[in-house]
Amino acid sequence: MPPYLRRFFWFLNRYFMVPLFRLGLGRLVVSPVSGYIMVLKVIGRKTGQVRYAPVNYAIWKGEIYCLSGGRETSDWYRNLLATPEAELILPTGTLFARMEPVTDPETRRLIIRQVLKNAGFAGFFEGYNPFTISDVELMKRSADLPLLRFHPLGPGSGASDPGGWAWFWVWGVLLAVLWFWKRA
């Protein structure tokens, strides 16, 4: 991916996607075109602070899968290797899960294609069409893409729980209603 596109997505993710998911509004931005996105809430390996990373995902047999498009150099990927437990902020709720890399070739073949299909327009940024590429070519071109499996361990802290941001838009709407009511 060209550096200008990488910078654009960094900005979009940090200032648009992550706040929307933290507000509990993630379901408003996911679609087959924009992609099915979740936000990973991971612990930084150097700082110990919470970090957020939007990624495309697929659900298969009760487990959640994602790819590290930045390969093994992605900070969120290296953070997960250091601390494999993470919260997954999905469009419909939050889960606490444990990550493990997937190395089984058959699982990789099935899931990598599905994650890229679920990525919407971003699925084409690897340089091929995930809907039409052959299995052999897909496995060859995605050999260096880490595939991660998340085993759900229980509920995570959602947007309406302490530390979430759902209160912000609720109070914002309430204040706007009061302001309009007072002006009327």
Name its key features.
Pnp Oxidase, Chain A, six-stranded antiparallel β-barrel, 6 strands, 184 residues, alpha+beta, single chain
**Total helical segments:** 5
The rounded distance between the terminal residues' Cα atoms is 52 Å
Radius of gyration from CA coordinates:
18 Å
The CATH topology is given as: Pnp Oxidase, Chain A
Order of helices and strands: HEEEHEEHHEH
Binned strand content: 25-35%
Query: What is the arithmetic mean of pLDDT?
Result: 86
**Helical content, roughly?**
25-40%
Q: What summary fits the major beta sheet?
A: 6 strands, antiparallel, barrel
What is the domain total for the residues? Answer: 1
What is the molecular shape?
Answer: globular
- Please identify the structural class as seen in this structure: alpha+beta
| Number of extended strands | 6
CATH class: Mainly Beta
Assembly category = single chain
CATH hierarchy: architecture: Roll
Order of strands in the sheet with the most strands? 1-2-3-6-5-4
CATH homologous superfamily designation = Electron Transport, Fmn-binding Protein, Chain A
Unreliable residue stretches: none
